């Protein structure tokens, strides 16, 4: 229950706070753009099975890879405000997914050994 509350507040409420802090004059629109960044999870539909409880999405799904995150980082340099808002939303989404992975690994060491981010497994020994 606590994990679900944390998960949803991190994916829905904290982007609103980020929008207010970073894009105050247009924070409501920025929040909507950041929420729209959750469409990045559409890449989960490319997986078989679509959902696997022990799978970390970071590094596994195409739009959750290091290369994709590099593009999201470069998007921060684009002078268009909506692109920067989207980039912040995407990067924060990756952070929350990574936190979800760490939470899962803390409860399932075997999940870490078979994940796409095995480099974090040393923290759970």
Structure description:
The two termini are 25 Å apart. The chain is built from five helices and no strands. It has 125 residues and is mainly α. Helix 1 packs antiparallel against helix 4 and helix 2 (27-36) crosses helix 4 (81-107).
The structural class is: mainly alpha
Report the end-to-end length measured between terminal Cα atoms.
25 Å
Oligomer: single chain
Q: Work out the strand percent.
A: under 5%
Percent of residues in helices comes to 55-70%
Number of strands: 0
Write down the overall mean pLDDT: 87
* Element string (H = helix, E = strand): HHHHH
Outline, from the CA principal axes? globular
Give a quick summary of the entry:
The protein has 125 residues and is an all-alpha fold.
């Amino acid at each position: 229950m606590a994990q679900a509350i944390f998960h949803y507040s991190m994916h829905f409420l904290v982007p609103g706070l980020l929008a207010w802090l970073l894009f105050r004059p247009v924070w409501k629109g920025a929040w909507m753009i950041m929420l729209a960044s959750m469409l990045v999870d559409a890449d989960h539909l490319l997986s078989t099975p679509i959902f696997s409880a022990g799978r970390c999405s970071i590094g596994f799904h195409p739009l959750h890879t290091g290369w994709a995150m590099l593009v999201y980082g470069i998007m921060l340099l684009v002078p268009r405000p909506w692109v920067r808002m989207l980039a912040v939303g995407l990067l924060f989404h990756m952070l929350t997914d990574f936190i979800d992975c760490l939470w899962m690994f803390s409860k399932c060491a075997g999940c870490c050994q078979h994940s796409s981010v095995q480099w974090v497994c040393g923290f759970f020994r």
